[in-house]
């Protein structure tokens, strides 16, 4: 079963095979859900799982960022819930939502009929630095971080239960997707996340973990960046660097094809920051 109880009032929905994670927090007056998954059906399934735990309304749905695998299920929660997102996540879904649909159609053709059902449903309450949600007897802190995985990332901190939901700012046991990431900002963000005294970190993909999971990803980025810098100084091209820069000690991580994409991404960042 993908649902895991992390504490008395906090649940994580753990996607199978590195699929997208979600979660929810149950207060005395209502529920906050974090991310709505890849399809309207998945969103409805998540809504049903909340209903199986509590009859209370879902008052808030927080989108950690605009990517389709975190927002295409939004319609299953509207209009019951206020959808909360960073201002740039709302802009991202409005501007690139159709592009995201095409991207996921190509990647998961078996779900084409599902994607036809998606009505892009952007956040209707936007935040800049963050906000606090009072669910009755438990508070949930929504905080903007980054730029990291995108320029509109939110994390969700539940202080009473010491659980941190990070969206795609953290991947566990999977190589991260970084097609529009700011890697330097991401490294700083991962270091900043250590100030939360988290007992459990729920990443965007991969199983929930202890607080060290943020450090492991930060070290990966630092190591790859150092290797790319070295390859660049040896005069290799981006493609040659992608072929030779290794991801050592991470044999257990999955989605290795993303590693080469990250090398190209870092190459581009270095080319911008140090011309010639
Ligand atoms: Zn993402």
Describe the structure.
The chain is α/β, with parallel strands linked by helices and 276 residues long. It folds into 2 domains: 3-212, Ribonuclease Z/Hydroxyacylglutathione hydrolase-like (Metallo-beta-lactamase, Chain A); 220-273, no CATH class. The protein contains 8 helices and 12 strands. It has helices spanning 40-53, 68-71, 87-107, 112-116, 183-192, 213-233, 238-244, 257-273; strands spanning 3-5, 10-13, 22-26, 31-34, 58-62, 82-86, 125-127, 130-134, 139-145, 153-158, 163-171, 200-205. α5 runs antiparallel to α6 (213-233). It binds zinc ion.
CATH fold descriptor of the largest domain: Metallo-beta-lactamase, Chain A
CATH architecture of the largest domain: 4-Layer Sandwich
Major β-sheet annotation: 7 strands, mixed
- End-to-end separation: 52 Å
CATH class of the largest domain: Alpha Beta
Radius of gyration: 19 Å
Structural class: alpha/beta
Mean pLDDT level? 94
Number of strands: 12
How much of the sequence lies in strands comes to 15-25%
Query: How are the strands of the biggest sheet laid out side by side?
Result: 1-2-3-4-5-6-7
Structurally, the number of domains stands at: 2
């Amino acid at each position: 079963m993908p649902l895991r109880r992390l504490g008395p009032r906090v649940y994580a929905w753990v996607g199978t095979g590195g699929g997208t994670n979600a979660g929810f927090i149950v207060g005395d007056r209502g529920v906050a859900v974090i991310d709505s998954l890849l399809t309207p059906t998945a969103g409805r399934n998540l809504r049903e799982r909340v209903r199986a735990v509590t009859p209370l309304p879902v008052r808030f749905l927080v989108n950690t960022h605009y990517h389709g695998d975190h927002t295409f299920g939004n319609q299953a929660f509207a209009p019951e819930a206020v959808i909360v997102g960073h201002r740039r996540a709302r802009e991202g879904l409005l501007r690139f939502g159709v592009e995201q649909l095409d991207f996921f159609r190509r990647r998961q053709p078996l779900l084409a009929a599902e994607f036809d059902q998606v009505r892009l449903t952007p956040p209707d309450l936007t935040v800049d630095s963050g906000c606090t949600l009072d669910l009755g007897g438990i508070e949930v802190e929504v905080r903007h971080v980054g730029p990291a995985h995108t320029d509109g990332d939110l994390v969700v901190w539940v202080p009473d239960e010491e659980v941190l939901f990070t969206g795609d700012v953290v991947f566990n046991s999977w190589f991260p997707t970084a097609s529009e990431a700011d890697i330097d900002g991401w490294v700083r963000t991962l270091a900043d996340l250590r100030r939360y005294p988290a007992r459990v970190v729920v990443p965007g993909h991969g199983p929930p973990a202890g607080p060290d999971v943020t450090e492991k990803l930060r070290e990966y980025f630092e190591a790859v960046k150092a290797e790319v810098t070295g390859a660049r100084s040896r005069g290799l091209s981006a493609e040659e660097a992608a072929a030779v820069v290794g991801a050592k000690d991470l044999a257990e991580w999955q989605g290795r094809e993303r590693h080469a994409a990250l090398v190209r991404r870092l190459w581009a960042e270095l080319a911008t920051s140090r011309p010639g």
